Amino acid sequence: MAVTCFPESGLLIILSVSVVLAMLPVPKNVRVTSINMGVVLEWDTTHPSSSNHTYTAEYRTSGLSRNFSTVCQDQTALRCDFTAVIVPYGIYTFRVRTESQGNTSRWARSAEFFPDRDTWIGAPAVKLTSTEGNIRVDIQNPVMKVKTLGEIYSRVAYHIRYWKQGKEGEVTVMNDMEQPGLLLNQLEDWSKYCVQAQVFIKHYNKSGEPSKATCETTTTDGKVEPREIAVVLVVSFLVVTVTVPLLFLMAWRCYRVLKFLFPTAKLPEHLKQYLMEPPHPWIFLVMQNSSQLEEQCHEVSIISESPLLEGERLCGHTEEQRGMMEGEEEQSQNENREVDKMQ
Ligand SMILES: *[C@@H]1O[C@H](CO)[C@@H](O)[C@H](O)[C@H]1NC(C)=O
Ligand SMILES: *[C@@H]1O[C@H](CO)[C@@H](O)[C@H](O)[C@H]1NC(C)=O
Ligand SMILES: *[C@@H]1O[C@H](CO)[C@@H](O)[C@H](O)[C@H]1NC(C)=O
Ligand SMILES: *[C@@H]1O[C@H](CO)[C@@H](O)[C@H](O)[C@H]1NC(C)=O
């Protein structure tokens, strides 16, 4: 009741006087630290930490309510975590004051805070897989404390850098890549490549923290080099040029041997008939009567009418065979004569 008698200005004067008397230090350097949508208000104090000062921290969203809501109260820590009450698209104001034995300091306010714009996006996880001479890069978004990165931002892109280990000066940069995965190709075989990625939010021209360099060694791509093709061609050519004539030669020898064993020359028809006719019975009579049974053999040589081929002349077998045949023929002719004389 007494208070209502005072004019408002008088009350304010009394309050400010009491604050001055209390000499409680106003929190200094009030700041919002926000990583991956976690929101923490931090501040400093000029007062010795041995004092019994406590702090109260509050927040307010611009819009519906102008009232502040208390999140941290009577705490000695120089920080207050607001993550649980934050939504990504709000606009927040935070404030904090020092309190001690019923006395309070003035409020110290933070600047307006836009979680989606102002939060610091951490490093994504980068996984590398070496396949057929290429390296597959898979990027996994950092985990947000509120919602997911894809839910918060309609368009998430990535800055990707890669380099061959030992050649850090020659970095390939691929900015604003829309896909969280890509294939690095045209890499050298059996070389170690390192990749770094960071999230990029184009809407705010905002880059996240770069990941630590992840490295992977390429294998061979399985494709055949032109040099290897040439070697294979030369080797196959050599093999063919050696084996084909050899096979041909072998086939020719076989043919020659077969021809020698099974000559194409045919017995004359009358000779065949003579040989196939059964012997006359009188021969046996003569054989029985004659005291001296002398077996007489006549060798018959059959000489093919077809002219000898060029190659056959070169062949020793044929020459010998021919010579032998001729010799035998002469011999048989002699025998024939002898038989005639005897008869
Ligand atoms: C802090 O508070 C305790 C009691 O809660 C009191 O005994 C002590 O003297 C206080 N210290 C200071 C520096 O005010
Ligand atoms: C704001 O605070 C006033 C008094 O402290 C209270 O009457 C009012 O209901 C509050 N408004 C909201 C939206 O909380
Ligand atoms: C405020 O602090 C002063 C001295 O620092 C003390 O005398 C006074 O009792 C305090 N006020 C309250 C309400 O505790
Ligand atoms: C985006 O930010 C970079 C530095 O972070 C700056 O160099 C560039 O000019 C900015 N681009 C736009 C369109 O604001």
Automatic annotation (TrEMBL):
PROSITE patterns: FN3 (PS50853). The keyword Cytoplasm does not apply. Keywords: Membrane, Signal, Transmembrane, Transmembrane helix. GO terms for molecular function: cytokine receptor activity. Gene3D superfamilies: Immunoglobulins. One of its GO terms (cellular component) is plasma membrane. This is Fibronectin type-III domain-containing protein. It comes from Aldrovandia affinis. The lineage of its organism: Eukaryota, Metazoa, Chordata, Craniata, Vertebrata.
